[in-house]
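Appendix B, example 12.
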Amino acid sequence: MKKFLVHLLLFVICIVAIDQIGGRVLLNLYFNVKKNYPAKLQHAAHDGTEDVFIYGSSRAFRHYNPDIISEESGMTTFNAGTQGNGVLFAYGLYLVQREHHIPKVALVDVFYEYDQTKRFANTRFIDLLKPFYGESPALREYLKRIDPWTVLTMNSMLYRTNSQLFSILKNQKAPENFENGFDPLPAAPSPINDERTKIYEETELDTSKVHVMEDMIEQMKNDGVRVILVFSPIWHNTEGFEYKENIVEIAKKHQVEFWDFTSFDSLKADDFHDLGHLNGAGADKFSHFLGRRLKNIAPDQ
């Protein structure tokens, strides 16, 4: 029995050692990736000093060209939009970012699929935040709010990086590199259908996401950030605007601006990649207009 306990103890020690050493090696590799998403998130969290930061899902990632916005507005701009994520991820990222840099303006691209509804489990939105867990007490408290199990799971160093293993390996020699955080989509593979279309299933309002959005707005405002909620262009015949009124109410409640571009007449079907996303040409048109509007709130004014 004593021999068994000794072997068991040695086994546990080996597992812990592998976890702690292996996890730290992967974290080091992750934070040394200089391309694509790892580099983009590290810039937003640690190194970015731009005046304007853009937050949101793929619609933020694909719709806002920082170079054009900077040129038009006179304010340096970085696109921190992250595909497949929304406000739950954006707030966590900001909690890390604010310890290094606080932007002058936050453009928060809002969309019902990720920011308002229960279509996806909330825990899926924190995967990209796990590598930053050890450096921010505020992030640790926030992740515990989204997933109470993080109190236990984040003790594993491998757990913090396991969802990033593919990204670490892929981006060691990746040729792509979107330094300003923006990656435009190509033209639509087929003509945009002008019939009234529903691209997302209706689902129940997620009050937990609403509360996170409100907390993010208030934190940014307390930090002196000018918060602007933006509903960027979507194909005009697409259904799913029923959640937009919630955003309008949030903006009114917290006294922030809401820029609604759902009926942006300057864009045509040729400017869309699909019903929910602009292509590169459409993103450039939108960014020119947005940049000119931002010029009125440039830092020196």
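The longest strand covers residues 226-231. The chain has 13 helices and nine strands.
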